[in-house]
Records
---
Amino acid sequence: MAGGDAHPLLRLEGVSKSYGPVHANRSVDLAVMPRSIHAILGENGAGKSTLMKMIYGVETPDRGRIHWDGAPVAPASPAEARALGIGMVFQHFSLFDTLTVLENVALVVPGKPRALAARIRDLGRDYGLEVNPDARVHALSVGERQRVEILRCLMLDPKLLILDEPTAVLPPQMVARLFDTLRALRDRGVSILFISHKLDEIRALCDTATILRDGVVTGRADPRVTDTRTLATMMIGREMPSPLPAGTAKPGEVRLALSALDWTGPDPFAPPLEGIELAVRAGEIVGIAGISGNGQADLAALVSGEQVLPQARSGAVALDGAAIGHLGAEARRKRGLAFVPEERLGRGAIPEMALWQNAVLTAHDRGLVRRGMIDRDAATRFTETCIADFDVRTPGPHAEAGALSGGNLQKFVMGREIMLAPRVLLVQQPTWGVDVAAAAAIRRRLVEMRNAGCAILVISEEIEELFEICDRLHVLRAGRLSPSLATPSTSAEEIGEWMIGAAEDRHAHAV
Amino acid sequence: MSPLEFILAGTLAAATPLLLAALGELVVERSGVLNLGVEGMMALGAAVAFIVSYHTGGHALAFVAGALAGMGAALIFAVPVLMFRANQVAAGLALGILAGGLSALFGRPYESLTVRAIPKIEIPLLSDLPILGGMLTQDGVVWASLAMAALMAWAFRSTRLGWRIRAVGENPAAAHAIGTPVLAIRAACIAFGGALAGLGGAYAATVYTPLWADGMIAGRGWIAVALVVFGTWQTGRVAMGAILFGALSIGELVVQATGIAIPSQALAALPYLATIVVLALISSNRARMRLNSVASLGEPFGR
């Protein structure tokens, strides 16, 4: 780095932002130097995204000042921020599925379409961001979509590029490739703000880190020389939670079995499921890895009973050896299946209803209903037990589900389903948007349930999490399921190869 | 004139009011807004255009007045929907009732009066062709509305403006995040849609049947809304649906003239029914419907 000029490119002074009573950011100071990769490290809900949105002009700060190149600025819209030289790659991409790559780029970047297409190809070659300008976005993989987002920013020649949790959705191989791109950008003079909660990635990539907790800066560090524990302590405010309880899988009889399951769902952007073969035994946790959109939604719906099969094919889904494919969700629950869906609000819980009412929705046959009437006392007691056992932070059973934070509601929904003592538990994204301590608690409960003999199927995008809790893994890609991979003998790289299809090709060639 | 020639000659003119209104609604819905007041906007445009035409004898002025009336009515819808995030279905229905009532009120003194239609353009040679000659002899508005359909199809496919409208309709939050003025684009689309609905009404009242009668729009506005949905938001399909409706409504006249003993009310209902059935069959492909549908249709946007 050409030292000497020590003026920060971007400087934030005492920036604060509240949404009603919630302080998203309180008096945040931040200085980003030219030619640096600067990490913003914090847990889910620490205020990282809000801070970035203020820099990018999507939100305006309540208090505080933003300086750009030494001069005070107040970007009131993304267009103004872009004019300054700030680009942002959103976590949930701001791309349009039905438009082509070129059209998506042209929405933001001026110029003739043909010239833009040529620049997309040139920049793509320079930075390892190859993508076909004429492809429609819905046909692209998540990694390709991210390349489009980054390209679209780069075409405006930014001095600062903000990336919000860019690795959350990438297979491991793609992460390394993204880091190469980001280093190349840094070397050519672009500063990068890299938002993440993954310590290893920050230590591998970034040269400075600002740590946020509950909207406040709790530390600054050079992640290259600071150890993981110190960073984690700054991030979560205490030591890392204790490791998982001991015990290994003692697989018993097959509880849930999918055989020769084919299904074409209603979503034209999702691939059809083809020949799914899966068995989950009592006393084991089986994980389904893979990037969302490869058939996960249809698979979960077919297991939970939200999607039923025709009578003739009902044997494709079996519970305890009995065909249940034709049964609806309620009938499957009666047979001992429990389900925690990906969307907490709307599918896992009804936001306008109180927690005790949400408890009745799935636990009604656990003595909460008598002679067709709801037993409010029993429902309240059930809910209080759930709140206490699963450390749900809420005023009580009468709080509306919609008023809980995402992490607390997740703990409640998980707790409610676990209290049903199911024979088979299906969980999608068990710790999505949950803080580290709560995530560790949820994982511990899952392992305890396995040790007690429950059959558990986990569908998740978080590879680390799957490795932590699962006994066996499958990868779902383009509607096909990989062979079973025993967690102790596989690696993140092998899972990653299945996620991007490389392993499948090799498999096919070898046969 | 054989029945076939008669149908060919009349189809495009019969389709034009519907085509204009449907193209307008298509733009509105592509931007993510559902305006159910098309019937009322057409009626208001028809009444205002008829009155202007009756007093001035000029058609250009009448069309401008009809378009402005439709646009004005649409802006009444735009304010609660865009600025106060009102429910689009309720606001659209209210607009339709309001504008329909205004058209009856304004038109009352003119009941059963007539104006002079605009002449058809004779194209040398083409107009003298056998069978097709009648179809190729149309007034300027018919050609202009067909040109408008082609222009719109091109704009949605190949222009930045068209892409921005589609982006706003598919994902307004993402469009806002990349700096697209969502509400401004939606307001412009609503105004444009109102103007085209007003034009469609003006054509119906001053050219197609140059005679004022209350309720003369006769459900065309609703058919226009249905056309957009069943045409899966594709300009070409929407235009074909409008032309199909035009052909059927002329065909109905031919059948009536032959004196077949079918109640005339049943015959009059036929074009509506048949258009809906055909379009429903076309749109029954669920995957195609989802690929083309406007993801944020009917959802308010604002922060």
Note: Chain A has a mean pLDDT of 88.
---
Amino acid sequence: MLKCKEVVEKADALVDGMPLSWRERLAMRLHLIMCHHCRRYIRQLNALVTSLPHEPQPLDDEQTKRILKKIDSPGN
Amino acid sequence: MDIDAPKFVARLQRGDNTAFAQLVQHQHNYLLATARSMLSHADAEEAVQDAWIAIHRAIGKFEGRSQLRTWLTRIVINQARMMLRKQGREIQFDPTSEEDPLAHRFREGGHWQDGPRQWDLGGPDALLTRDELRHCMARCLERMPENQRLVLELRDLQGMDFDAICNMLDISASNVRVLLHRARARLFELVDHFQETGEC
């Protein structure tokens, strides 16, 4: 029987969609049926990871020009 | 914008200035975020600017063996590492020195002593959409060890795959997984604490 600490360590692999062996999947499933803390941990970890901001804003034209100017400056 | 589209890559390789300007416009902030996870704000700006000069010189030789953003990120990481070395510093990617941030939440037998709180994830005031919590998360990221912050940045904020991260940082998949777990566990702890107290 898996311990909660082990489930928490494997939870990242679940969130990342990494393949688990059938033995690991079975052990996780049995544990999660019985442990509401670990079910909650995995559900909330997933929500946390998917809510992190993914796409930074592109630069505006002025900022882009400023960087290009430095690349073109003599000596580079 | 798909920077890996073959036509766009071919324009860059031919030295097309318009394509290069588009590349800078769309990728600068990704690269800056990577550099900021390793350096101070001012040093990160300088490292990315130096990286753009190196990229401009080398783009004609880009062979497409990795995704373009992976190639760009690798150049920025090398610049940042060079800058750190000049300052007599280096990022260690061996995660053995630090304890799991959730370790204190478990009993000796490995079961929860202090289980996670129920987070408010639904509705317009949902926990993860609150500005106060976003400020707390930004502070938590600033205080995070650089090795964890960098792996979190590359994987969870920029969506890079594990193999690319391992190759780029020259570390094993298991070390990437441990560092990512610890970074996420820190954020989990923060949100859990915020749910309970309304404070960072």
Note: DSSP finds eight helices and no strands in chain B.
